[in-house]
Amino acid sequence: MASAHLNALGRHLALAGFMGSGKSRLGEEVARRLGRPFVDLDREIEARTGSRIPDLFAERGESGFREVESGVALDVLRAPEPVTVALGGGTVLSAPVREALAAAAFTVLYLFNAFAKVSSYLRTCFSTRFSSLSFCLASFCCFLSVFF
Fold this sequence. Notes:
The protein has a four-stranded parallel beta sheet with strand order 2-3-1-4. It is α/β, with parallel strands linked by helices. The chain is built from six helices and four strands.
């Protein structure tokens, strides 16, 4: 008998991957084929806050944005009706979100053009967004730990 935990049909389908990897485009098509609603987490955050993602980063900083992102992700994952959700690139950095994904979702790591994305992510992360390479590497390793 298959475990209910492994039955993806009654669970959310979460697409995780790097920014720009195509999660939203893929998610829309998968949701259509499964006959379930699609949620793009970034668009959901913008709808709930009335602000664009770059503006939220500017206004609240990285940690403030991540708090909003985690809260919206948890709301989506608590919904009783299964949805297909395209997570934001850093959503899985939140421990409560990782726990909710494990409990309520079948999570797919979407690594379209993965090596180029990782290289670009680390280069951008180190040069513009964060002050330390160790933080960039730690966030990347945390991201991968969700899946392996």
